[in-house]
Amino acid sequence: MSVTLNIPANTNCGLVVFCNSAYYQKAIVTPSGQDPITLYKTTSGASTNLMISSPNQSFSSGSTGQVTVDIQYSTDNKTWSESQLSQGSLGVSTTYMWVVASEDANDNDYNDTVVVVNTPIG
Ligand SMILES: [Ca+2]
Ligand SMILES: [Ca+2]
User: Fold this and answer.
1) C-alpha distances in angstroms, 28 versus 17, 91, 95, 122?
2) What is the whole-number distance in angstroms between the Cα of residue 9 and the centre of ligand 1?
3) DSSP code of residue 108
4) N-to-C CA span, the chain
5) Tally of structural domains, the chain
6) What's the CATH code of the domain at 51?
7) 18-74: per-residue pLDDT in tens?
8) Nearest to 111 by CA among 43, 29, 54, 50
9) Which residues fall inside 5 Å of ion ligand 1, going by CB?
């Protein structure tokens, strides 16, 4: 199950994803009317802290500003399951941030994959 971020339309957004998890992780960020941006954490085994970003780590929120975020995990890099998602947003001084945290299966630390989208204000 994905969540939808309601971002002002046609706004440039930064994208960072970080992980703290043993399982494989996949984050799929889809701005309305655009191709999905899919980021993977492919290392499995020991718990791994990792920040991942695509070479093009910014995107436009598009004509509606609706951006969906889906986070999945896998134990074998073949079969993927939906993570539990927790969504929030905050404004700090001149920056606004949307955060989607996720839990894959085990310990409820909700940091297995965390997607952060940011825009400047004003
Ligand atoms: Ca966890
Ligand atoms: Ca974790």
Assistant:
1) 10, 23, 23, 28
2) 33
3) -
4) 32
5) 1
6) 2.60.120.400
7) 899 989 999 999 999 999 999 888 776 656 667 776 656 789 999 999 999 999 999
8) 50
9) 103, 107, 109, 112
Q: How far is the CA of 83 from the centre of ligand 2 (A)?
A: 12
How far are the Cα atoms of 43, 44, 112 from residue 69, in angstroms, in the given order?
Answer: 21, 22, 15
User: Alpha carbon 36 to chain centroid distance?
Assistant: 11
Quick check: 97 pLDDT over 90? Answer: yes
Sign of CA dihedral 67, 80, 25, 106: positive
Asked if 20 and 106 count as a contact pair (C-beta separation under 8 A), the reply is no
Q: Which two tokens stand for residue 80?
A: 């993927």
Domain that holds residue 85: 3-120
pTM score of the predicted model:
0.91
Virtual torsion, Cα 44, 45, 51, 52, nearest 10 deg = -10
Neighbours of ion ligand 2 (CB under 5 A): 20-21, 109, 111-112
Residues, the chain: 122
**51 Cα–ligand 2 center, Å:** 13
